Amino acid sequence: MKKIILEDGTILTGEGFGSDREVFGEIVFQTGMTGYQEVMSDPSYCGQIITFTYPLIGNYGVNRDDFETIFPSLFGVVVKEHCEFPSNFRNEESIDSFLKSRDIPGISGVDTRYLTKVIRKNGTMKAMIVNGDRDPEEVLKKMNSSDLPIDQVPRVSTVKPYVIPHRGERIVVIDYGIKSGLLRAFTERNCHITVVPYNTSAEEIMRQKPDGVFLSNGPGDPAHIPEATATVEKLIGKVPIFGVCMGHHIIARACGATTSKLHFGHRGVNQPVFDVKTERTYMTSQNHGYSVDDNSIMSTELKVTEYSLNDRTVEALEHTKHPVFSVQYHPESTPGPEDTGHLFEKFLNNIRQEKGVRKYV
């Protein structure tokens, strides 16, 4: 038996699976009906305990092809029911086996509907998955005296640069915790990719002679990596830039806007976004706990091009003078709808137009 205990005093009991160790992290919920393997291996969940709202997780197993990173960095998993005997032609192991091999604890048999309502009401908060015999008062005391991690990006970013060679446009990717799906989106378009650590300087990036710079997704608070903001501030105006999720926040902050924490974040594959210019609605995949403050954009050279239909938060930005744009959601759609894959073409078109301008200057 295991318990999950929240800092507000909520206690839920269930059966343990995966690793037997106890963990402390931030409790969040994810609303996707499928794609649990991509979710669990998404570096943006570093430091978090994921509550899956869909009642049955693991029914099609785990396979080698759908990982978004080699070493998952989430802290724990909470489900209503986990499937012990998955059935799918691609299945290679169960979710229990997967979590055991990565030393990640899980708890099943939990009323995840109730737990989600608690998070929606009180916001994301500290939580621990512990053995059933632990004294709740002792656990709460430990949580109150402990801080959530703030070094998530350094934990998940690459330590050294690496290259994925091709013959197309030369893209430098700044890795704040990038998903494999984003890299695939560029390789499918024949791009030559150089992935660099989150704290790489603007000078070093420009030495690579990039045609464009891509800012990846990543976990945590963008305010905790000020060096990333300083780098992007220097890059704007020198090269076309495209940012996703954390990259979206970094572009906003580099232009003078501010970011703040959402009450419970957006984590799911069914988030509706409205495009102001085309008046079209897209369904998007999202995973973030922070957003760009709408009012702070007015004093910058950015404009809002898309917003969330759920809560009116900023979903996309575009620079008014330079070929720089960003989105809050994940256009690579792993997992999720494929409504916004055209954004990669937009980025590459910006690059080609900029190269054409420079050619005749």
From TrEMBL:
Pfam families: CPSase_sm_chain, GATase. Pathway: Pyrimidine metabolism; UMP biosynthesis via de novo pathway; (S)-dihydroorotate from bicarbonate: step 1/3; Amino-acid biosynthesis; L-arginine biosynthesis; carbamoyl phosphate from bicarbonate: step 1/1. Its EC number is 6.3.5.5. SUPFAM superfamilies: Carbamoyl phosphate synthetase, small subunit N-terminal domain, Class I glutamine amidotransferase-like. CDD domains: GATase1_CPSase. One of its GO terms (molecular function) is ATP binding. Residues 1-170 are annotated as: CPSase. The keyword Acetylation does not apply. Keywords: Amino-acid biosynthesis, Arginine biosynthesis, ATP-binding, Glutamine amidotransferase, Ligase, Nucleotide-binding, Pyrimidine biosynthesis. The keyword Transport does not apply. L-glutamine binds at S44, G218, G220, M246, N287, G289, Y290. Signal peptide: none annotated. Residues 1-130 form the Carbamoyl-phosphate synthase small subunit N-terminal domain. It comes from the Bacteria. InterPro entries: Anth_synth/Amidotransfase (IPR050472), CarbamoylP_synth_ssu (IPR006274), CarbamoylP_synth_ssu_N (IPR002474), CarbP_synth_ssu_N_sf (IPR036480), Class_I_gatase-like (IPR029062), CPSase_GATase1 (IPR035686), GATASE (IPR017926). The active site is at C245, H330, E332. It catalyses: hydrogencarbonate + L-glutamine + 2 ATP + H2O = carbamoyl phosphate + L-glutamate + 2 ADP + phosphate + 2 H(+); L-glutamine + H2O = L-glutamate + NH4(+). Small subunit of the glutamine-dependent carbamoyl phosphate synthetase (CPSase). CPSase catalyzes the formation of carbamoyl phosphate from the ammonia moiety of glutamine, carbonate, and phosphate donated by ATP, constituting the first step of 2 biosynthetic pathways, one leading to arginine and/or urea and the other to pyrimidine nucleotides. The small subunit (glutamine amidotransferase) binds and cleaves glutamine to supply the large subunit with the substrate ammonia. Belongs to the CarA family. Composed of two chains; the small (or glutamine) chain promotes the hydrolysis of glutamine to ammonia, which is used by the large (or ammonia) chain to synthesize carbamoyl phosphate. Tetramer of heterodimers (alpha,beta)4. NCBIfam families: CPSaseIIsmall, PRK12838.1. This is Carbamoyl phosphate synthase small chain. It comes from Salimicrobium flavidum. The lineage of its organism: Bacteria, Bacillati, Bacillota, Bacilli, Bacillales. The gene is carA.
